[in-house]
């Protein structure tokens, strides 16, 4: 697993041993960022990201590498949070992030109180925890964390459909790659 592009391009990332964490593949991350930039890598400059269920932090680290101003890494697992810290340290990232080690919904409540509005939100819970998709998307749909231009990207198994709409949050695109899918949502 490595950073695809930007400041930390080709740098390796550490993953947790075992099957508890399923890091987003390099290929799927590349697809995600190709969709989000639509050929203009400059659109990520100065953006604010939520990397929910961050695991290794690969998506948030890719965003930082490509010019994001700030990334909130949200991870409930102590072991996974330690891996994110290790990856941040290995890349020499010293600012532009906050690691929030708590349950995603609790973290979203906390972040909403800061008044922060996120440009991009990436959601990647364990595939078997389908309840986390609806709960997280429903919370975001009614929160103050998203603006009209915010994009919510959801990684899920290709055989699972997280849903078309959650309040004002509507899916506008689905991409399938291997066993994984990416669903993209915006406020309507």
What does this structure look like?
This protein has helices at about 25-35, 60-65, 80-90, 105-115, 130-140; strands at about 50, 70-75, 95-100, 120-125, 145-155, 165, 170-175, 180-185. An eight-stranded mixed β-sheet has the order 3-2-1-4-5-8-7-6. The chain is α/β, with parallel strands linked by helices. The protein starts with about 25 loop residues before the first helix and ends with a strand. It has one domain (about 25-185): Vaccinia Virus protein VP39 (Rossmann fold), CATH 3.40.50.150. The model has no long low-confidence stretch (mean pLDDT about 95).
Helix and strand composition category: alpha/beta
The average pLDDT value, as a whole number, equals 93
Task: Give the overall shape, derived from the CA principal axes.
Answer: globular
Number of helices: 5
Helix and strand pattern: HEHEHEHEHEEEE
User: Largest beta sheet, briefly?
Assistant: 8 strands, mixed
Q: How many strands appear in the DSSP assignment? A: 8
Assembly state = single chain
CATH superfamily heading: Vaccinia Virus protein VP39
């Amino acid at each position: 697993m490595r950073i695809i592009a930007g400041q930390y391009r080709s740098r390796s990332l550490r993953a947790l041993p075992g099957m508890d964490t399923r890091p987003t593949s390099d290929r799927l991350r590349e697809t995600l960022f190709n969709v989000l930039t639509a050929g203009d890598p400059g659109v990520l400059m100065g953006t604010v990201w939520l990397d929910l269920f961050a695991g290794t932090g690969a998506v948030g680290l890719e965003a930082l590498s490509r010019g994001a101003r700030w990334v909130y890494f949200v991870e409930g697992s102590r072991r996974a949070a330690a891996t994110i810290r290790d990856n941040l340290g290995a890349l020499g990232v010293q600012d532009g992030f906050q690691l929030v080690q708590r349950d995603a919904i609790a973290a979203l409540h906390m972040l909403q109180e800061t008044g922060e509005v996120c440009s991009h939100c990436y959601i990647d819970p364990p595939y078997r925890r389908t309840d986390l998709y609806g709960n997280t998307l429903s919370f975001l749909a009614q929160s103050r964390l998203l603006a009209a231009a915010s994009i919510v990207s959801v990684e899920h198994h290709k055989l699972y459909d997280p849903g078309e709409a959650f309040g004002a949050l509507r899916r506008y695109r689905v991409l399938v790659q291997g066993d994984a899918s990416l669903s993209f949502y915006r406020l309507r």
